[in-house]
Fold BLUF domain-containing protein.
Amino acid sequence: MKCIAYISRTPTSDRSVRMPTGLSDIISVSRKHNPQSQITGIISYREGQYLQIIEGPYAEVDKLMAKIAADPRHEDLWVFLDGPVEKRSFDSWAVNVFDFVDQNALLNTFVENHMSVLTGFDDYQKSRIQPFIDIKQSDAVLEKHYEDKDLRLLAWPDLNTVSQPQLVMNLCIKLTKKPYPFNALANSGEFGAPHEVTQMIRAFDQSGLLSITESEPVKEQIVVEKKPNKFYGAIKKFLGMR
Ligand SMILES: Cc1cc2nc3c(=O)[nH]c(=O)nc-3n(C[C@H](O)[C@H](O)[C@H](O)COP(=O)(O)O)c2cc1C
C-alpha cells in the first residue's frame, strides 16, 4: 500500500482570481472511481489551492496520480509525500470536499503517521501547506521538552492506529490516574528508551490529549541539627561525666 499527498494551485479565472473551477466534476468522478480502486483519502480546497491525499494499492495510486498530474484543471503541483505506508490514515474516500473545521480530527492520524515528513519543509513549502495543516503547531510540539513536567492524559487516544497498542495502552493507564512525572516515565525503561517515550508523548501532545504542568520541585531534606539538651548536659556535668 502507498500514499501520495500533494498540493496544487487551482486555475486562474478571467479576473485573475484562483477558483476551484471544475471541482464538482472532480468530486463526482472521484466518488465513483476511488472506492472501486480501493483508494481512500481526501481532497480539499483552500485559498486557491487543492490538497489531496490518496492511499491504496501501489498500482492504483500510481495510475490515478498519473491522470491527476496530467489534468489541466490545476497547476504548480507539489507532491510532498509519496511512499509506502503500513496502514491507511483514512478509512474511506471522503466523498465531499473535506472540511477542515468539522473533520479536522480525521487528519490527525495522517499528521501523526507522517510527522517527520511534515516538519521537514522550508518556509515556502510551509506557507503552502499551512492553510491545510497546522505545521507551525507541529513544529512547536517537536521542539518541546517534557523534562521536569507532570503529564496527565485528558482523553483516550485511538489505539487502532498505533504500532504497539499494548505498550501505548500501558502508558495511557499510567497517565490517567493523576499527573505523572515525565522523568520517572523516561528513566523507568518500562516504555523503552527515553527518546521513545518522548516520541509517544509528543504524539499525544500533538493530538491535544495531554495536560502538562510543572513538576513539584523535589523538597530538599532539612536536616535538623540536634542541639545538646541543656538539662542532661547539666546532669552529666554534675555526675562528672563531662
Ligand atoms: C485536483 C484534482 C483531483 C482529482 N482527483 C481525482 C480522484 O481522486 N479520483 C479520480 O478518479 N479522478 C480525479 N481527478 C480527475 C482525473 O484527473 C481524471 O479526469 C478522472 O479520473 C477521469 O479519468 P478518465 O477519463 O480516465 O476516466 C482529479 C482531478 C483534479 C484536477
